[in-house]
Amino acid sequence: MKKTAILAVCNHEGILATILRLLAGNEQWEPVGAADLTQATDLLSERHFDIVLLGSGMDEQDNEVLKKQVPHVPVIEHYGGGSGLLFGEIYQALGRSSG
Amino acid sequence: MENKIIHRADSRGNADLGWLKSKHTFSFANYYNPDRMNFGALRVLNDDTVSGGRGFGDHPHDNMEIISIPLEGDLVHKDSMGNEAVIKAGEIQVMSAGTGIYHSEYNKNQGESVKFLQIWLYPNQRNVKPRYDQIKINTTERNKFHQILSPNADDAGVWIYQNAWFHIGTFDGGSSTSYQLKDKNNGVYAFVLTGEVNINGENLGERDGMGIWNVESLDVKATKDARVLLMEVPMLG
């Protein structure tokens, strides 16, 4: 089964590592990290992602750039960091009833 | 026209990790209910009980306003900004996670549980400088609401990066009061900590919650001795 590709964009190295670790806990998800907007846009031009998580350091302007580049890919602006990562946001954005 | 949504206490999501028992009003961690994602800017309302000596290890947050209200016991807080404090019932703690913060929370006491509310609100701006505050809240005067949180640093209670106001009050059975919204475009999520109340015609029991919007005021009648938390928040989009 094809995994759900999730791009986490966050310029806080430690938080990004935590987010990727938490996402990797779901076998159906394939998390990839980007440390800044440039890395994110490069990755989005290279391959498909199902969802983008907008983390620390990324602002509304960055969000607009991403939405313009991949208007069909949902961008989650707030998920709370690395504790109790709000998986619900991901499920909701993917339009699924559960993981 | 007035709108309401009622979440009965027994309809909340349940998490039991042994050392942590939590009731989630809204989707959180492994509890997912697409109809329970948020009430406006209010995203998380967790009713946590942590066993003696146990707690949450060091973990990060970003871009979220995080409020803790202890109900029983003592909670030890440490964070990456160098804050180390004990918060207890009668106090409120706030963190603006902003660009990123690490913190841990532990039950200070070995022999008794700590109970507290963990509340997350979406911030109204991203990437603010992280900040932490905790204060005592004076709620000794009964039968009225006391402001414990606002958007304004020079106002009563703690402040956050959101157009939100929290009030808490302890009421004698038979007493009544009203609450005027600070911003009529906001909604209010009422959470009954103890007892029973009637708010705008709806009977609510212990740990019941009700979101109400398109109103300018609430009529709150305590049908039994009660303690109530009101969270006025923007309704967003």
UniProtKB/TrEMBL annotation, chain A:
InterPro entries: CheY-like_superfamily
Domain of life from the UniProt record: Bacteria
Protein name per its UniProtKB record: Uncharacterized protein
UniProtKB/TrEMBL annotation, chain B:
Cofactor binding remark: Binds 1 Fe cation per subunit.
Family, similarity comment: Belongs to the pirin family.
Molecular function per GO: metal ion binding
Positions contributing to Fe cation binding: 59, 61, 103, 105
Xref: Pfam families: Pirin, Pirin_C_2
Name the record gives this protein: Pirin family protein
Domain Pirin N-terminal: 14-121
PANTHER family: QUERCETIN 2,3-DIOXYGENASE
Co-factor(s): Fe cation
